[in-house]
Amino acid sequence: DAKTTQPNSMESNEEEPVHLPCNHSTISGTDYIHWYRQLPSQGPEYVIHGLTSNVNNRMASLAIAEDRKSSTLILHRATLRDAAVYYCILRTRGGSNYKLTFGKGTLLTVNP
Amino acid sequence: DAGVIQSPRHEVTEMGQEVTLRCKPISGHNSLFWYRQTMMRGLELLIYFNNNVPIDDSGMPEDRFSAKMPNASFSTLKIQPSEPRDSAVYFCASSLRLAGGYSKVLTFGAGSRLTVL
Question: Would strands A61-64 and A70-75 be described as parallel, antiparallel, or unpaired?
């Protein structure tokens, strides 16, 4: 499986935007970029995913580099509830794409 | 929609005892996953079912672990006998796998925290 690299931790202030980076230099053409997050004492939850174009939903935005070797999850206005571990995961289309292989993720701390 | 329901939420047992964890997936989902999370190893996929059939059990650590899915609305993960190193949070997740082989996003349950003394 293609690997992703994320910072171990990041810190933000409430009401400010947060940009969470992810490097995936070995991404293949059939790999989708997925983001999940895990709030304290909860199971992971889906945030957003994309292939080539930038994506927006009610939770976040996903900015994908033109060469697809990196991406950034953007939380437009962080709240205390956004404090979580954020996982960037590559998921191939077809074949064994049922699998989500989680790395260590980025622990986001949001300061009041 | 109640989401993925797991029970028990917490289980404390003694080494050697049998442990059974239960999962009810989201209605209409045809794929079910069991994951385990520890501080040392993070989130690991243990087993994956599609249409109630085990497809990939390569993550099951050893014969002490077994999982079943007797119908589309229920799955169990059993550990017999349990050992202290099995202490972890066990998550069940479900999703919808389409006919073309594309799987939609996973929805996770709240987890079952197991402590084996």
Answer: antiparallel
